[in-house]
Amino acid sequence: MGLMRVIRLWALRKKMPICEIARRTGLSRNTIKKYLRAEIVEPQFQSLDRTNKLDPFAEKLTGWLVTEQRKSRKDRRTAKQMHADLVQFGFDGSYERVATFVREWKGERQRATQITGRGTFVPLVFQPGEAFQFDGSEDWLMSVASASSCR
Predict the structure, then answer these.
(1) How does pLDDT run across 33-78, given as a tens digit for each residue?
(2) In Å, what is the CA distance from 117 to each residue of 4, 63, 107?
(3) Which domain holds residue 88?
(4) DSSP per residue over 31-43, as a string?
């Protein structure tokens, strides 16, 4: 339930005082009065499309991450090494931004893998008697002739 609906419910139906609503929600009394006077149900906020310093280098970094993913774990470059390489290409942003990009990229790849069904493990569980059971032991048979010659 949205915050605006909760404020309206408390104020109009339950006749709760504005100071009590302010205490429970953590909003100021003026804000609550403004919400009650307004005809909107929920406030709409505009999200700004912000660019960051890493955007011009995102394609290059993504290419590096794809290449590094194919390598063995010991041969992969770390995010710090990738940041140092980006600095050589003219990137003047922080390491934290690169690390965040790498973390988000890996999370997206993991979600994509889970959605497509690849990389999942489905254990095969059978009730007793539903499947065959094989014994891995070896049995050797000695012929009677060879056994009598050993005496």
Answers:
(1) 988 888 766 666 677 778 888 899 999 999 999 999 899 989 999 9
(2) 41, 24, 16
(3) 51-97
(4) HHHHHHHS--SS-
Do residues 35 and 7 make contact, with C-beta atoms less than 8 angstroms apart? yes
Please check whether residue 150 lies inside any domain of the structure: no
pTM exceeding the 0.85 threshold for the entire prediction: no
Environment class of 86 (CB within 10 Å of its CB; exposed 0-12, middle 13-18, buried 19+): buried
The answer to whether residue 32 sits within a structural domain is: yes
- 22 within a domain of the structure (yes/no): yes
Helix axes 79-88, 95-116, angle to 10 degrees: 120
| Rounded Cα–Cα distance for residues 33 and 39 (Å) | 12
Evaluate whether residue 91 is within a structural domain.
Answer: yes
